Amino acid sequence: MELERLAPELLCSIQCALDSPQDLYYLIKASPASLHAFVAARRIILSSVVQNALSPEAIPHALAILHIPKTPPEEYHHENCDLCDFLDQYLRGNSWSFPKDLSSVITLARLIPRVSGLIDEYFDFAMKLPVTEPCLSGFSPPSSTEWARLQIVFLRFEIFYQIFPMRDNSRYHFFAEKIFGHAITDVEKKFIETVP
């Protein structure tokens, strides 16, 4: 394979240019030389891939997820300074700096397939809706602006869910049914089938 003949520095540059963790995984899986190059500079490569995968507007929301206080929801109250400080900083638009530690970068990298999957499910659901206007038939792929807005929406949902986890499934199903209709049960079935 031609990749095996490339210098490790060039392989690192190629990996840093990728825009999805899945593509990085497939490249590493296909080429032992790419694996060695990745192992030598994994934090740098993963950081680049994460920043390429997320729109610049969505990065502050992804970084906020790393800073959500780990306080159990039962202990949330008005005087909970950790949560209030986090929400103040997040809502004021103060951005956190990109992490330097590998575990945080890995957390962000794992977040990307989840957000991308939710966006794909959203468009899959929208494509199945009955079309009432002729101009709405035949969806085209989302523009970069639409993609960025959807990334932000699903990252905000992740933040909300981590701060206020839904313990009562009946409440979740009530709101989900109102928002998505009966398609949510199909998504849940797919999810349950894929979880080991």
Number of helices: 10
Rg from Cα:
20 Å
Shape: globular
Unreliable spans: 178-184
- Approximately how much beta-strand content do the residues carry? under 5%
Whole-number mean pLDDT:
79
Q: Biggest sheet, open or closed, and with what strands and sense?
A: none
Helix/strand order:
HHHHHHHHHH
Fraction in helix? 55-70%
Q: What's the total number of strands?
A: 0
| Terminal Cα span | 34 Å
Helix-and-strand structural type: mainly alpha
Brief summary:
The chain has helices spanning 8-16, 21-30, 32-40, 42-53, 59-65, 81-91, 102-128, 144-163, 169-180, 183-194. The protein is mainly α and 196 residues long. Helix 1 (8-16) packs parallel to helix 4 (42-53), helix 2 (21-30) crosses helix 3 and helix 4 (42-53) packs parallel to helix 7.
Question: What do you see in this structure?
Answer:
With 196 residues, this protein is mainly α. The protein has 10 helices and no strands. It has helices spanning 8-16, 21-30, 32-40, 42-53, 59-65, 81-91, 102-128, 144-163, 169-180, 183-194. The longest helix has 27 residues, at 102-128. 16% of the residues are buried.
